[in-house]
Task: inverse folding
């Protein structure tokens, strides 16, 4: 089933658009990338992760079609690369992403019903680390850890110049390292996972812990759990609110310790931080740097760079997923 | 400087011995491996890690010479591969191994002064994981984590069929993941490192914590800190001593949690446990299995095998270091 436009009729010279999609816990971003790696058009829409994938896919298809119609007939669609949490390229499925109500779905197949071009899926953090090593802060590096700080916490790893996928395409789940046994309940069903502390959600949970533990007045006492966002906490912290600042200090401290531990396993040359939470800037980065320096093993000291992503939100994953899909266009056609 | 024997005069057909050395925190093992991967002769000696490397190397050279003399003239020495903690193949040095008083030493160069053959060094855990994937429990697997439970705690990683070395040859230092911030002091100068809990030393430290925290009678109250060994704790546990058994239960529990966390990062098909502490058998393995099953993220459940090494102590590292050195004999000769 196509929606009228013959997206597949691209010139045979490898030109044309490959759409990259980044599915986030809160928002999804679609970008149309040309053969030079330039993002030609982009659109955002709310993911609504608590709805089913069957409701999500038609909305995604509509946004992709809209972008392509904007750019057609000058340049045509050749393929689609989708970055999603809990996606396995090898198995072609998305399996129960931790903050979603999707279950196990054949996302590539479902999206493929709307378009006459190959659709590939990959883990969101893998897409982002590819984007960063090809176009971003880690350009040209061979041993890189990309850490995504959004609704959840994830990592993509490039080791010795190659994506580290693991035996089941599931490497890099650092958000589900248990850092506090018996601690905060996680959407994965266990307790004490890193992402319950180190993420946008983690910042909000820490605020509520601080509100419970102190009596100091703060505007945060007038905000409900459902209404609180990490953006609000950041803006209050910048206005001098102690509770808000303390929540970021604790998050940054936990992040620095986690990164020091992860360095001892992967020995990267750089760690790139990305995701919505990095907009908090020094509120998060300063305590993270201090804690990292305090906790990192002597033999790695001064050898690992902590970088902030230089790409806009979702761009690393869009560019990575799109270039990953473009690399494989030929393989797919040949099969 | 050679000691009289012309070790280099091997036949040109790739035959001959390559000695593998495994330097442990307590004992070192030397093995002479022939071109079929068979261990032809083997010798042990105490490492005395608190002495300098300058005192260790002559003792090592004497053991190697002894083994070679045993086997000469039938088969001759072609090369030496040394597995040492904190060794970097790329930089050719051993840099301050955590439980040693060596500082930073050019171990390959120092040993090379005694023999007329190429000497290569590599990280002990890297050697062991090569040995296990080539000759042991993980034969033929492409994504394997080898965990060494000895005086310290280390890991060697094979990802996608290749040794994961990291940007500075220092990947896999899982013994220095901080699992308990502010916890037990570690020889690395920090606090709360995994190996202060999960290692032979960790078992003994846990015993002393238990002795301090209870008043129950146990023969362990008659043993000094310096005299206590994990072997003694294991043998008392097997005789029904509650304190000794509890020390292994806690160690196994911590090990299972650590392995569950590490699986979330590397996504291996198997974890192979080796090192002196695995002689404790079910005392350690049973609580480790339970804790691993309890803590591992849902998506990895039933996908990761926990295996015990099937090779004898030090053999994996000897075989790995020897085969690594043999692979590179030609490269070295050509240079």
Result:
């Amino acid at each position: 089933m196509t929606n009228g436009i013959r997206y597949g009729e691209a010139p045979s010279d490898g030109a044309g658009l490959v759409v990259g999609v980044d599915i986030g816990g809160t928002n999804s971003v679609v970008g149309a990338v040309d053969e030079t790696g330039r993002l030609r058009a982009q659109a955002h829409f709310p993911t609504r992760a608590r709805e089913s994938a069957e409701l999500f896919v038609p909305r995604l298809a509509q946004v992709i079609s809209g972008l392509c119609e904007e750019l057609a007939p000058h340049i045509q669609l050749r393929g689609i690369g989708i970055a999603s949490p809990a996606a396995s390229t090898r198995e072609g499925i998305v399996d129960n992403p931790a903050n979603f109500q999707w279950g196990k779905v054949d996302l590539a197949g479902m999206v493929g019903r709307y378009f006459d071009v190959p659709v590939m899926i990959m883990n969101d953090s893998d897409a982002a680390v590819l984007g960063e090593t090809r176009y971003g802060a880690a350009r040209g590096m061979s041993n890189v850890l990309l850490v995504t700080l959004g609704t959840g916490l994830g990592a993509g790893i490039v080791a010795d110049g190659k994506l580290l996928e693991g035996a089941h395409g599931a490497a890099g789940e650092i958000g589900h390292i248990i850092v506090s046994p018996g601690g905060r309940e996680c959407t994965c069903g266990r307790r004490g996972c890193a992402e319950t502390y180190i993420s946008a959600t983690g910042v909000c949970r820490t605020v509520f812990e601080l509100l419970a533990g102190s009596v100091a007045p703060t505007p945060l006492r007038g905000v409900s759990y459902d209404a609180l966002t990490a953006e609000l906490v950041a803006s209050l912290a910048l206005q001098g609110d102690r509770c808000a600042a303390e929540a970021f200090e604790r998050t940054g401290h936990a992040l620095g310790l986690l990164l020091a531990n992860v360095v001892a396993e992967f020995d990267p040359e750089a760690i790139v931080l990305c995701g919505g939470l990095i907009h908090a800037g020094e509120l998060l980065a300063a305590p993270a740097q201090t804690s990292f320096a305090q906790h990192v093993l002597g033999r790695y000291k001064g050898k690992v760079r902590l970088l902030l992503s230089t790409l806009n939100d979702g761009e690393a994953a869009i560019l990575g997923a799109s270039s990953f899909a473009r690399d494989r266009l030929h393989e797919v056609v040949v099969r």
Notes: The two ends of chain A are 21 Å apart (CA to CA). The first helix of chain A runs from residue 53 to 71. Chain A has nine helices and 13 strands.
